[in-house]
Amino acid sequence: MDPAHYINRELSWLAFNQRVLDEARDSTNPLLERLKFFCIVSSNLDEFFEVRVAGVKQQIHHQVGDTTPDGRTPEETYKAISRRVKRLLQDQYQCWNDELLPALADKGIKLLDCSNLTPAQLKWVDGYYQSQVHPVLTPLGLDPSHPFPLLLNKSLNIIIELKSHASGSGKSGLALVQVPRNLNRLVLIRKTRQQASYVFLEDIILRHAQTLFPGYEVRGQWLFRVTRNSELYLDEESIPDMLKAMEEELDNRRKGEAVRLELTHGCPASIRSRLLSELEIEEEDCHAISGPLSTTQLMQIYDDTHAASLRDVVFVGKTPKLLSRKRSLFDAIRERDHLLHHPFEHFNVVVQFIEQASEDPDVLAIKQTMYRAGNDPRIFKALMNAVRLGKQVTVVMELKARFDEDNNIRAARRLEEAGVHVLYGMAGYKIHCKMCMVVRKDEDGIRRYVHLASGNYNPTTAKLYTDLGLFTARPEIGAEMGNVFNLLTGMCQFQGTNKLMVAPFNLHQRMLALIARETEAARSGQPARIIAKMNALVDKEIIEALYEASRSGVEIDLIIRGVCCLRPGVKGVSERIRVRSIVDRFLEHSRVFYFENGCRPEVYLGSADWMPRNFFKRIEVVFPIEDGILRDRLIEEVLAFNLRDNQKARIMQSDGTYVLPSHEAGQQPFRSQQAFMERASLLARKPETRRAGSPKMQIRTKLAR
Questions:
Q1: Could you identify which of 6, 420, 526, 553 might form a hypothetical disulfide with 70, taking C-beta atoms 3.0 to 4.6 angstroms apart as the criterion?
Q2: What residue numbers bound the domain in which 141 lies?
Q3: Catalytic residue among 341, 432, 451, 589
């Protein structure tokens, strides 16, 4: 394995975040949508430091000698991360200062500091400080009797340099003030139908800092922010109560080791050194910011401003006619399989499936996995209602869904109190598969109705993420799903599967076998092609198999939103591999796997990316699409549209950079998500009734465009 054939995972992720920033800089996007992408960049960076950078720093601390597939030691990886982050921050704040801030002001949305306010506005600000802010502030002196406090993760703080007024003492010192988290970061001081003016909460505190330290003169004050290691560390094998252990560990998350210091540009070296020393981090961990810190909170402007001209046109997902015309979803699913493409097709159909199951007197049991529960109450109410009506209801709740642990714990407690049988999966594995099974007594016997998907049972994120889901009553799939649920809830061994691929048991080996089959087909002169859409490609064995397939003549298209450690277009290695990433209005989240199979194409959907954690550390399910019409739709629509996108796609180069697609003469602009919205509107009016055509013709004419 040549390290030169691999791209560093962390640097690839930072390249993805740069593509998100590109959307903030794209003047063709509505202004508030650009602001949203700008905030997402900061939110992404926070999580990157809390988890990925924290992990690299732990490797350095423990002197781990392993190298990454691209040949870097942990120290080399960290130095490369630091350089790349500084460049990304420079681009991000140039976007803010030179593009977004002036554009917002031009539209009447102004962020002012206190020096820009009128006397009347200053009077209002002073009153607001005295009545709302001052009572909740707690100034903290730093001296031998007041040691440096443990600052909470991602809290915004002010460090203040003070000098005593006492005659001849000349005594000086430092103090801290935390900017309250329970007050709006942006204080609205003026709003009309057309305009809004805000002042940052920290600016109001800075204006009044002198009132917090009677007898001292404020000589200087600077903002800073600390990011801490937020990974959870649980010995699941020895935990008697998983729910209680998770609650305790979440409290520890806020107090993990510091991994990053952000501070305002111009902070004196002495103050900077003091903070680094107290936080026990190095100079490379420090980032001077030329703009507001913690910019995720600028989303308040997005939420407050309702001007339609500054936003994307409102889109509401459609309900496919084949499902909407049926009084019972069970009748529709019994007739044929159904595919849902969210958010273009409304997630309400999935909610209705669970609601109908809860009320149907012929339903005997409901079994469901939950990864990110969310706050929409409808699914929870339906499950609790099913218990009240005497049905057996089992939920496998994943408590370790990163940064959604609190929501999932609350949801688990509510369900348990209502009588739902809640379990927490298997020790050592995250339950990441998305499955719901309804066991129903039909006239001709017991039947399993199932929903399998790439996305979570979360109606809120289903409006923001692109995902695919399948309704089916195929007996073999239902039986295998029943075995998977028994594996998650009981004491049994994996029974093996023919239809489903299940991690950590057979998903990795079967994906390798499918790639190998295409490789052998190419060697024997048969048509061979692989198309894979996912969030990330990291696994070394899969990458090696794709390289071998490329060398053997397999044409490979990879649609990878985020991390891609494979290098496309390397002579003699990956010349037949093309990689593209799409960043658009909705977060690309679906996973689709296409294998040509000698002109008898097979298409699979699922919840798993091609990463070691998905193959070996999670319970994942990848499932086949056996209905010919639905399979053709995935080939001709979902995959073909993604491969045609020349507006929001970026093409990966062999050096890891991304460029816009080259436009051929006469080529029309094509934006896949816009096409999906139009397609969903068509299906809501007229169902797909055509027969499946020739797979070979479809692949050649549709995907080759």
A1: 6
A2: 132-294
A3: 432
